[in-house]
Design a protein that fits this description.
about 600 residues, alpha+beta, single chain, 2 domains, five-stranded antiparallel sheet, 34 strands, globular, Methylamine Dehydrogenase, Chain H
Length: about 600
């Protein structure tokens, strides 16, 4: 996230946009007419703002713990940032450290412990008894002291990745601090299935390169002037699980340069042409999402989206790259569960500006959706928050994750003060919002930084990190666009560990509710006739009441019948998925 000056937009633009038929900010009514979206013009206030919610329930809200409370909105010392999950615990990063919340009772989260340790946005990950935290700002100190560092060059300055041992949850202990030339804006935990003794950390640094006097080997020169420059690369840290204090950098892959050190095929900075975005050159990655199940990672790297081969975890290699003239800053990435799509976000304005106004192009500051095939990316569509936000709310696409509804690509995403949006991108060319939660601006007189940094699905709940207000837990409600069966099927997916930048493969057990979720989708989209859908539903219900061989036989027969429907269906893949679940049920 970067900070820039906010240009204001005329209120006449907002009024004109709301008056236009089909404009962003209008929602259909039962009669087919449209009405203003309730998110528009919400009452402002830091702790008493108005709210709007659709197809979600707010389960719990918790303000930041003592030591992390900002004096006022926009206080950059106490910004809540990213999230990680382990068991019943949520680790909430902050510019001044991290908090660990116990969500054993999701309706009543309790603070288990917190650690004050300033140094930047505090990107966090967790594995077993270890917490990893990024530090990039020059104020960070090795000893976590909030005093900062006054000297231009200092052995006390820390910029890199910290490792904390949380074996004693009430007394976390910093056991390692790995210094890097540009610090760590974000990082990604990576596992090598052939090496269970270690975990690996991909470090994405976006800050200035520090002096070689402070850290030997650091250089911010162009590659033609210094082939060992700290630009155009990431760092790979190896962390021995039995001795995390021995963690060290083992490689520095130059993902943005060829073997000679020259920029190769990546964006060199500047504008893409008249009426397009201006992007800085690609000499860094903001965020890398790994999807080990397919051996790939997607890097959101300033001026490019890149595809990375991670089968050799210690030596990742760039295999493809794309540019988009609608993107100002490639920020983060998410794969579809089947690995056939990649969603990249554009953090136009750096997160501190209002970029969802009526005057803002719908293809700027949102998501670009790409098809992934044979290690190549092809643009398929865009998604942007479908409601106009005013100039008092910093708003742009930010962090999110998949919601495990079988048969659909559904994502929950944070949009800073644009709130939380849940949308379906199964049809890559026509993504559609299905739920949201939004609050009024943190200040009703001027733009102050606030809103949702992250929103992730974790074991039946959407967990949101609100920059100025704290931690929120939400649940989905059934609607015309999402059935109770689909929600219940999603809740069958249980994760013991979730670091959002390490995307897990989602797998559903063979259950009747999973079959009914697929059937609901076919009925909603008219994939098969209403008559056949009703017959399948009755057959499923009858089989569920049976036992033993009678159930198995009925399900095998039904699976064959359903498979036979695929040929005449407008959605044959979903019909085959339903048949597969019914067949698997016959074996349980």
């Amino acid at each position: 996230m970067t900070r820039r000056t906010l240009p204001l937009v005329s209120s006449l633009c907002l009024a004109a946009a709301l008056a236009a038929p089909g404009a962003r900010g209008q929602v259909p009514t039962d009669s087919g007419a449209t009405s203003p979206d309730p998110r528009i013009s919400l009452r402002g206030g830091w702790k008493d703002a108005g709210s709007a919610i659709s197809n979600l329930v707010l389960v719990a809200h918790r303000a930041p713990s003592e030591g992390f409370n900002p004096i006022a909105p926009g206080d950059f010392r106490y910004i809540n940032s990213d999230l990680a999950f382990s068991g019943n615990y949520v680790i909430l990063g902050n510019y001044s450290g991290f908090m660990i919340w116990d969500i054993t009772n999701p309706a009543s989260p309790t603070l288990r412990t917190s650690v004050v340790c300033p140094g930047g946005q505090g990107d966090v990950s967790v594995y077993r008894n270890l917490i990893f935290m990024s530090a990039e700002e020059t104020r960070g100190r090795v000893d976590c002291s909030p005093r900062g560092v006054a000297d231009t060059v200092s052995a006390q300055r820390f910029r890199g990745v910290r490792i904390f041992d949380i074996s004693d949850l009430d007394n976390p202990k910093q056991v390692a601090w790995i210094q890097t030339c540009r610090g760590s804006h974000t990082h990604t935990i990576v596992f090598d299935p052939k090496d269970t003794a270690n975990v690996y950390v991909y470090v994405s640094g976006t800050g200035i390169v520090r002096s070689a006097t402070e850290l030997a080997g650091c250089s911010g020169k162009a590659p033609e002037d210094d082939p060992n420059t700290a630009l155009f690369r990431i760092e790979v840290i190896q962390v021995p699980l039995a001795a995390p204090q021995d963690a060290k950098i083992i490689s520095t892959p130059r993902l943005f340069a060829d073997s000679s050190g020259s920029v190769n095929g990546l964006w060199k900075g500047g504008t893409h042409g008249e009426g397009t975005q201006t992007t800085r050159k690609t000499d860094l990655c903001h965020d890398i999402t790994v999807y080990s199940a397919i051996g790939l990672a997607a890097g959101a790297c300033s001026g490019n989206g890149i595809l990375i081969d991670i089968r050799d975890v210690q030596h990742p290699k760039r295999i493809f790259q794309v540019v988009d003239p609608n993107f100002a800053f490639w920020h983060s990435a998410t794969f579809s569960n089947d690995g056939k799509k990649v969603l990249f976000t554009d953090e136009w304005g750096g997160g501190g500006q209002a970029r969802c106004r009526a005057s803002d192009p719908v293809k700027w500051g949102g998501d670009a959706l790409f098809r992934l095939s044979k290690d190549k990316l092809e643009l398929g569509g865009y998604y942007k928050l479908p409601v106009v936000q005013d100039s008092l709310k910093n708003c742009v696409a930010h962090n999110g994750s998949l919601i495990p509804v079988p048969g659909r690509d559904i994502m929950v995403q944070a949009w800073y003060q644009g709130g939380v949006s849940v949308f379906d991108f199964t049809d890559i060319a026509h993504p559609k919002e299905i739920a949201y939660y939004d609050l009024g601006p943190v200040d009703s007189t001027k733009l102050q930084l606030g809103g949702y940094w992250s929103a992730y699905w974790y074991n039946g709940y959407i967990v949101g990190s609100e920059i100025a207000r704290g931690l929120d837990l939400l649940q989905l409600k059934p609607s015309a666009q999402l059935s109770q069966n689909e929600i219940d099927a999603a809740q069958l997916v249980h994760l013991d560990l979730f670091n959002p930048q390490n995307q897990p493969k989602l797998v559903w057990p063979a259950r009747f509710v999973v079959a009914r979720a697929y059937l609901d989708q076919l009925m909603r989209d008219k994939g098969i006739s209403a008559d056949r859908s009703s017959r399948i539903a009755r057959a499923l219900g009858a089989a569920e009441k049976m036992e033993g061989q009678a159930r198995k036989g009925a399900l095998r027969t039904l699976a064959k019948q359903v498979a036979g429907e695929a040929k005449g269906s407008t959605d044959p893949d979903r019909v085959r998925a339903l048949a597969s679940v019914v067949h698997d049920l016959s074996a349980t």
